[in-house]
Amino acid sequence: MNSMSGGTDICSAFVAGNPWVPPRRGELTAPCLGADVTAFDAAGREIVGEVGELVVRRPMPSMPAGFWNDPGHQRYRAAYFDTYPGIWRHGDWVTMTAERGFVISGRSDATLNRGGVRLGTAELYSVVEELPDVDDSLVVHLEDTDGGPGELVLFVVTPAILDDGFQQRIRRALREQLSPRHVPDRIEAVPAIPRTLTGKKLETPIKQILRGRPAAEVVSADAVSDYCAVEAFARLRP
Fold it and tell me: What pTM value is reported for the model?
């Protein structure tokens, strides 16, 4: 068994197991062959032992050279190279250890910022989806445009009735295993969590739908495994 993290856009992995490096619990062992992977802070400095952006400092053999119908490579540069010019930013939060192992904390463009504290969605899922009767979950943070704390909303797929007692068990687990800031303001039951064809949760598109954008503008029906799951979120829009 070998855990890894990569992307369909590079048809490869960035970090994975390495048979020549001792395994460490909770970490991906090392960068993959040919991948100059590290973690950057907001100023573009390499950081160790802190959460930062996963970047690749030199070209990988499988990186795309551009996008179709993208004259001047404007969309391509905006997608990967705008934040750190000339350096690929993949959009994942990662912690690089002193041994050059890696811990992935979820998508940086879907990270929750609650009261100035950055919360990784993967942290919440690791707690919630270990609970009895929780089959799947998705969390979004709906920011307050007036500068308030916003609303943290947790969606769960469950065969059980999501009554007050069940919700309190979820909140208690998040408070005890993570922090009070991870406790959602609202918990909703949904029939399924929408995912891409490669299995990634549609965190950012669902947030946009809950903010009022039509589902058809945000998600292509042929790009997800279950479009009915997307439509269920549209019906939950405030």
Answer: 0.63
